[in-house]
Amino acid sequence: MIRREGGAPRGGTLAIYAAGLAALSGLLVWQAGDLTLGLYVIGGFGVAVLVFAAVAFGALRAVSASAVARRLGARSTALRYGLANLRRHARGNAVQVASLALGLTAMLLLTFTRNDLVDAWRRSAPPDAPNRFLIGVQPDQVAAVRGFLAERGMAQAELHPMVRGRLAAVNGKPVSEADYAEERAKRLVEREFNLSYAEALPGHNRIAAGRWFAPGAQEMSVEAGIAERLGWKLGDELTFTVGAERFSARISSLRSLRWDSMKINFFVIVPPALLEGFPASFVSAFRVAPGSEGVLDDRTRRFPNVTLVDVSAALRQAQGVIDQVINAVQLVFLFALGAGLLVLYSAHVATEDERRREAAVMRVYGASRRHVTGSQRVEFLAMGLLSGLLATLGAAAIGQVLARRVFELDLPPSPELWIAGPLAGVLLLSLNAWLSARKVLSASPALTLRDSV
Questions:
Q1: Closest CA to 407 of 416, 415, 399, 396
Q2: Which of 86, 150, 360, 401 could form a disulfide with 448 if both were Cys (CB 3.0 to 4.6 A apart)?
Q3: What is the Cα–Cα distance from 296 to 309, expressed in whole angstroms?
C-alpha cells in the first residue's frame, strides 16, 4: 500500500485535458482576431510551458543531487527530506513550477515590464521636441520666413528642402507595387517619396552602414528601415521621377533615424547638385512654448500659402490614450493575478493527497511535526525561487523583444524586475507550503493510511 503508484492517466482525464486545451486555443484565436496571430500565441504558450518545464525538471534534479545539497542534508533532517522530495517529485514539481512561472511571467509583464515600456516611450520624446511644423515654404520665401521665425525667438528652426519624387527603377529594372508582397512595401512604392538634398549629415541622423556621399557625386543616403523593407542594399542604383524628369544615384550609406525626435527626417537625401534644379518647397519644425501660441498669429497674413501644423494637440491626445490603456491594463492585471492564484491553488490540491500520505508515513516512522513541516517548506521554497527566476527571465526576454522589434525603443534592464520575480515566487509558494502543512498535519496518520488502502 505504501509503495502504490497512481498509475497512468485514465482516458477520461486525458479527454478533460484535451477539452481544456481546445477551449483555450479557441479563445486565443478568437481574441487575436486572426488565425495566424492566434496560432503564434498558442505556439508561444506551448513553447514557454515546455521550456519552463524542461528547465525546471533539470534544475530540480541537479539541485537535489548536488554536492552542496548533500552537505546541507547532512546537517539538517528537514533539508535532507525536502531536497529528496524535489528529486522524487521532479516531474510533478516541474509542471507546477512551469505553470506558476507562466502565470508570474504574465503578471510581471503587466506590471514592471509594462511600466518600463511606457517610461521608455515617454523618454524617447525629448522635452524640447518640436510641436509645430511649417509646410509649403517656397524658395523665394526662405529668407523672409527664417527672419520671421528669428524675430519671434525661434532662430534655431531650420528650413529643409523637399522634392516630391516617385521610385521608377532599381538597378535599371522598373518597379511597381506588384513586385512586393508586404502591404507596407506596396504603399511605399506606389506613393511619392519626400526627397531632400544636403551637403552634410543632419545632426540627429547617424550613419549605420557605408559612408556619407561626396559633394557632387551621383550618390544618395537612404534610411536603413525603408532600405530593409524594400530590399535595397549599398551600391544599388535608384531612379526617381520628378514630374517629367528623372535622376539616378547609387546608395552610398544607410542612416539610422530617431523618428520620435519629432524633427524633420527624410527617407532619401542626395547631394544638392542632383536636386537643386527640380521644383522644391521647404519645411521646418520648431517648438512653441506653452502660453506663447499667439506669436504666430500674423503668419497667415504675411505668408498665406504656408501651412502651420500644430501637433501638440495630437501628442496630448496620444498621451491620453496611453493613460487610458494603462488603466485598462491595471484591470487586466487583477484578473491575471486571480488566475495565477487559482493555478497555484489547483496545483496545491492536485498533490494534496500524495503529500498527506507521505507525511503520514514519515510520522508513523517517528518524524516529528517540525521535520514534516520543514521538509515541505524546503521543497516549496526551492520551487518558488526557481519559478520566480524563470518568470523573470521570460518577462525580461519578452520585454526586450517588444521594445526592440515592436516599439523600436531602448529598454534598459529593470533591477526591480529581478527582485520582484524571485520574491513573488517565494511568497506564493510559501503560502502554498503553509496551506499544505495545515491540512497535512491536521489529519490523523492512521486514518490517512487506512483511507489509502
A1: 399
A2: 360
A3: 12
Amino acid at 233: K
| Cα separation, 148 vs 136, whole angstroms | 15
Q: How many CB atoms lie within 10 A of CB 89?
A: 19
Question: Could you tell me the pTM of the whole model?
Answer: 0.57
Handedness of CA 213, 216, 219, 224 (dihedral sign): positive
Q: Which of 259, 248, 263, 241 is nearest to 164 (CA)?
A: 241
Residue in the block written with cell 504656408: 306
E strand or H helix at 159, and its extent? strand 159-170
Closest CA to 102 of 346, 383, 337, 394: 394
- Which alpha helices (DSSP H) does 268-368 contain, by range? 272-275, 299-302, 312-350, 352-364
307 beta partners: 135
Cα–Cα distances in angstroms (integers) from residue 403 to residues 105, 119, 369, 398, in the given order: 16, 11, 50, 8
Number of continuous H segments (helices) and E segments (strands) in the chain: 16, 11
H helix or E strand, kind and range, residue 257: strand 245-257
